[in-house]
Specification:
6-stranded antiparallel sheet, 5-stranded antiparallel sheet, 2 helices, 7% helix, 365 residues, mainly beta
């Protein structure tokens, strides 16, 4: 901090010391009047690193309860992503366990809640985040879509859910659900939780496990089907899945046309330094795709429609579910913007049946 000059204690000296403070106050007021900035703040999470246990055997601030059959949560100091420990949740057959923390007061219009998950689970069960909104009396006044599902045997990966504060909401309840009573047991670890104002890129896409089809049109909600040249059939498949109850299925018939795909454009989000796209797939054909960095709605670029587009390919055939991970650096022009959108498109270009499940996007800092 800059120290004030030593001058005689007279009116001129008082004027010299006060003037910079006034100017800084005026600058702060002007800054807060810029679009997209506000005085809204979030309370800090308690025990985000799950490093040590409190009186209830859980880290301070977190609560836990059995949600299906049985389950147990303890602090694990041997398996962690960072720090001194993580939260280990053990499930029996058809088990389920819920961890939660209240947050308030919340005045942000949007918040992102995330953490890092590692799983050794069997069956379709997994770990999922959700965010619930409460009023001053603790009554639920809103619940958004849950996050994607992390299941099976998965290394540490980030999971994020985004919530938009409804009218009357003053608090948030952050939930981590381990197991939905569908599996045959296993272990999951949770570490490095965070909560941030705005939309984190990890929660900017929706229906990443292809579970939802509220309009009943046969396609997973949030994903746009596209076919060029005919000879393809795309649908949500409730007979095959890596986790949960469904996946996306893209079929290329003999003599098919150019290509087919499912794609989704995220809501506007804060640009990270880079992205890591993950998804699980199996089947046959020819699988490729791209990650595209788009400007936020209303933003016009000097050249072109997009900041950049980066492609990937997934080797086929695959008889078992296989994970693909692809990293892309955020273009400098997108980083300079306060917001951007991310487009994810996955193609079936060949003959055969391709299944997709458990897509995730992680921001790299």
């Amino acid at each position: 901090m800059e120290k004030p000059a030593v001058v005689p204690r007279n009116l001129a000296a008082i004027h010299i010391e006060v003037q910079p403070k006034v100017l800084r106050s005026i600058a702060l007021i002007c800054l807060l009047m810029l679009p997209g900035l506000s005085l809204a703040q979030l309370p800090a999470l308690q025990s985000p690193g799950f490093d040590s246990a409190g009186p209830n055997e859980l880290p301070a601030g977190w609560r836990g309860r059995v949600s299906f059959a049985e389950g147990k949560a303890t602090v694990d100091t041997t398996e962690k992503r960072s720090g001194a420990g993580s939260l280990r949740v053990e499930l029996p057959r058809h088990g389920g366990y819920l961890i939660s923390q209240g947050l308030g007061p919340v005045t942000c219009e949007q918040i992102s809640f995330g953490c890092w998950i590692k799983t050794e689970l069997t069956g379709p069960d997994g770990v999922q985040l959700s965010l619930h909104w409460l009023d001053d009396h603790g009554q639920v006044v809103g619940t958004g879509q849950p996050s994607a599902l992390v299941s099976g045997s998965a290394a540490w990966q980030q999971l994020v859910v985004v919530g938009e504060r409804p009218v009357g909401a003053t608090k948030a309840l952050l939930k981590i659900s381990v197991g939905q009573g569908l599996g045959t047991g296993g272990t999951a670890w949770v570490d490095d939780a965070f909560v941030r104002p705005g939309v984190d890129v990890g929660g900017a896409l929706s229906n990443l496990s292809f579970e939802l089809d509220a309009d009943g049109d046969g396609d997973p909600d949030g994903w746009r089907p596209f076919v060029s040249g005919g000879g393809f059939a795309l649908a949500r498949d409730v007979t095959a899945s890596r986790s949960g109850r469904s996946s996306a299925r893209l079929v290329g018939y003999p003599g098919h046309g150019d290509r087919s795909c499912y794609g989704q454009v995220s809501r506007p989000c804060t640009p990270p330094q880079g992205l890591r796209l993950r998804f699980w797939y199996k089947g046959s054909g020819e699988c490729s795709g791209f990650v595209r960095f788009r400007p936020a709605p209303g933003v016009k670029l000097e050249s072109g429609e997009f900041y950049d587009t980066m492609g990937f390919g997934a080797p086929l055939p695959r008889g078992e579910w296989t994970e693909l991970a692809f990293e892309a650096k955020t273009p400098a022009a997108a980083l300079a913007a306060r917001q951007m959108q991310v487009e994810v498109t996955i193609y079936q270009r060949g003959e055969g049946t391709l299944w997709l499940d458990d897509v995730s996007v992680e921001g790299l800092q």
